[in-house]
């Protein structure tokens, strides 16, 4: 099956098959990887986690689930520079090391299979989890509870003291936005590891998922520039220009467009 088509087919299900969709993203980068086999093998992890869980009501099992994952060796990947393997779900399952988002996706799938209520939160710079109705969030890297002050400290530690905590940063994330974030992560990881063609695969997926930003078009334009595709670069720069609300950025985009050769017209 074509991985991109299978990916969107997962999103079209009701409810969307978030974890399987993320596996099909990994399959785009490794033709030998078989998502359906990974799903079968995942049952063993589910059993290992389940055996160590306490006897508590389902809505109190979110933190124990994450702690159980930690007991089994799952932890944040601290390798520098970070590699794409930290976001490719099959590799994270093999290595038990990954970005918070990848660990969160594994936790969400385990929670779904074990009937534990849990949702994802696209918190800036560090994906988080929540049990609906709880007064705190959970760090997928070990299960630490984060209350509003903890979230504020996490935000300022990553982005500086001038960035204020906003209510929308704590909202439940929809499957499409989670997978778009995963695609953006992979786009950056492949680029920083000098694989622009792989980064282009992720950049295209970001745009196909919809609601793309000027920065998303600009990111793909820069990849096309690196790959010496001026017509495609122009297309994305023009879209970034239409979406941008920053006057300085608009000026720079206009100047950059002026240095590109005009699109050829075929008669």
Automatic annotation (TrEMBL):
Belongs to the UPF0162 family. Coiled coil: none annotated. InterPro entries: SirB1_N. This is Protein SirB1 N-terminal domain-containing protein. Residues 68-183 form the Protein SirB1 N-terminal domain. It comes from Pseudomonas fildesensis.
């Amino acid at each position: 099956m074509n991985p991109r088509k299978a990916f969107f087919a997962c999103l079209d299900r009701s409810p969307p098959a978030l974890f399987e969709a993320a596996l099909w993203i990994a399959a785009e980068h490794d033709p030998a990887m078989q998502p359906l086999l990974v799903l079968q093998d995942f049952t063993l992890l589910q059993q290992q986690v389940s055996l160590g869980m306490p006897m508590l009501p389902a809505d109190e099992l979110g933190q124990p689930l994450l702690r159980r994952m930690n007991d089994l060796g799952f932890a944040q990947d601290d390798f520098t520079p970070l590699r794409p393997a930290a976001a490719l779900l099959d590799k994270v399952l093999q290595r038990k090391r990954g970005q918070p988002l990848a660990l969160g996706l594994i936790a969400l799938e385990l929670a779904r299979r074990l009937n534990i209520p849990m949702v994802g939160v696209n918190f800036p710079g560090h994906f988080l989890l929540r049990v609906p109705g709880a007064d705190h969030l959970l760090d997928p890297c070990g299960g630490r509870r984060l209350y509003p002050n903890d979230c504020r400290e996490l935000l300022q530690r990553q982005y500086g003291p001038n960035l204020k905590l906003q209510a929308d940063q704590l909202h439940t994330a929809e499957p499409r936005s989670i997978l778009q974030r995963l695609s953006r992560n992979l786009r950056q990881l492949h680029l920083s590891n000098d694989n622009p063609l792989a980064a282009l695969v992720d950049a295209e997926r970001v745009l196909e998922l919809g609601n793309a930003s000027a920065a998303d078009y600009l990111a793909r334009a820069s990849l096309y520039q690196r790959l010496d595709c001026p017509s495609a670069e122009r297309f994305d720069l023009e879209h970034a220009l239409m979406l941008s609300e920053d006057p300085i950025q608009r000026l720079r985009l206009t100047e950059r467009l002026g240095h590109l050769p005009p699109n050829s017209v075929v008669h």
